[in-house]
Amino acid sequence: MLLAQMVRKSGLNTAISVALTPWRKPRVVHHPGKILLDVALAVALGGGCLADIGMLLAEPDVRPGGFRSHSLPCHRQTRRVRPESPRGDPGRTFPSTGRVWELAGANSPATDGQGIVDFGGVLTLAHSEKQDATATRKKTFGHRPLVAFVDHGQAGSGELVAALLRPGNAGSNTAADHIEIARLALTQLPQTLRLEWQTLIRTDSGGSIHA
């Protein structure tokens, strides 16, 4: 319930619904934004596959609006949206963190007028030939996304603000990817942090490239 209330209080449910409106067909009952949030809640509860969204069926207070069956998000998932689609790429665009940080008040990671964003590549293994899964440099098989986290300091952990999906054989020193993840991360930061305050971007040796 705490996670569900946070979603409502921050306006994340409304923001995601607005962002995914172009993908909503006329007269559909279940909004794609609501389906995405249901999947996120299922993952937070320990779900490992789309069918685990059925866990929410026993918790009507967590899922206002509901859904008819766990097969619905599975059908939505199978409809791939290509980046070149005129509707854009929903996988790269997220509601801004500004509203959540505003509600956090003194607990915001940028209360001192400074923010720190860390970049890093992560190997995620896939046990079958899933989309874009390839052999990795460590002789495994899967994906290698490049992610950006806002550092919450010693008292907290990190907050994911951007993710660049990449195949498992993606390079470590790819300048274009580092530039793109920087652009995506900065877009998610509150406007004051981008224009008036200071933002430090850190990365490992993979970002030590002239470009």
What descriptors fit this protein?
4-stranded mixed sheet, 211 residues, single chain, 16% strand, globular, 2 domains, 3-stranded antiparallel sheet, alpha+beta
Explain what this protein looks like in three dimensions.
With 211 residues, this protein is an alpha+beta fold. It has two domains: 2-81, no CATH class; 91-207, no CATH class. 30% of the residues lie in helices and 16% in strands. The chain is built from seven helices and seven strands; from the N terminus they run H-H-H-H-H-E-E-E-E-E-E-H-H-E. It has a four-stranded mixed β-sheet with strand order 6-5-1-7. A three-stranded antiparallel β-sheet has the order 2-4-3, with no helix packed on it. The longest helix is centred in the C-terminal third of the chain and has 14 residues, at 175-188.
Summarize the structure.
The protein has 211 residues and is α+β, with helices and mostly antiparallel strands. Helices cover 30% and strands 16% of the residues.
Q: How many structural domains are formed by the residues?
A: 2
Stretches with pLDDT under 50, minimum 5 residues: 77-91
> Main beta sheet, described?
4 strands, mixed
- Strand fraction: 15-25%
Q: Helix- and strand-based class? A: alpha+beta
Record the strand order, biggest sheet: 6-5-1-7
Extended strand count: 7
Give the ordered list of helices and strands. Answer: HHHHHEEEEEEHHE
Helix tally equals 7
User: Into which percent range does the helicity of residues fall?
Assistant: 25-40%
Q: What is the global morphology?
A: globular
Mean pLDDT across all residues, rounded? Answer: 79
What is the gyration radius calculated from CA atoms?
A: 19 Å
Distance between the termini: 46 Å
